[in-house]
Amino acid sequence: MAEIARILIEHRINGVPVTDAEGHLLGLVTEGDLVHRAADERLEPRESVWKENFYRSVFRRRTPEPDKAEGRAAAQVMTREVLTVVPEDHVTVAARLLVDHSIKSLPMIEHERLVGMISRFDLVKRLANSGPDAFNPMRKN
Fold first, then answer.
1. Which whole-number Å values give the CA distances from 79 to 9, 50, 83, 88, 103, in the listed order?
2. Cα 10–16–20 angle (5° rounding)?
3. From CA 12, how far away is CA 9, in angstroms rounded?
4. I want to staple 134 with a disulfide (CB 3.0 to 4.6 A). Which of 83, 101, 114, 130 is the partner?
5. What is the pLDDT of residues 44-72, one digit of tens each?
C-alpha cells in the first residue's frame, strides 16, 4: 500500500490501474481505496476483541469482495467494478460518467486492453485549451 501511495503522490494522480500480464483491466486502486484502508488502522490498543468482532460482523459489507480495510496488496484493496471508455467515445461521455458517478478518472479500453486513463484534470485541460467549444458534440474528439 505504501508503494501505491508513493506513486499517487509522486505522479500527482488519483488512481492506478491494475492489469494482468496481457494488459486486461482487473481494477483500479484509487486514493479513496487507500483512505478506506487507512480509516480502519488502529492508533490505540483495541478496547475489546469481542466488541470489535461483533461490530465487524454486523456492519461489514455483504459483498464477495475482500474487505479493503484488511487488504495488504493491490488486488485486495482495488475497486473491481470499474466504468470505462473507449477511444471512439466522445469526450462528453467521459465527462458525464465522471460527474454522474462522482469519480475522478476512467480507464480507456481498446480491444479489451488498457490503453490509457482520462481524468477530470484532462477534461479541464481540454476546456482551457479549446475554450467553450471543447465539449461540443459536433466537434471531433
1. 19, 29, 10, 24, 12
2. 135
3. 5
4. 130
5. 555 555 555 665 665 555 555 555 555 56
- The answer, as to whether pTM is greater than 0.85, is no
Q: SS3 of 130, please?
A: helix
Given the DSSP bridges, would you call strands 105-110 and 15-19 parallel, antiparallel or unpaired? unpaired
What CA–CA distance (Å, rounded) separates 99 from 97? 5
CA dist., res. 67 & res. 72, Å (int): 10
* Residues with Cβ within 8 Å of residue 4, at least 6 apart in sequence: 16, 29, 34, 74
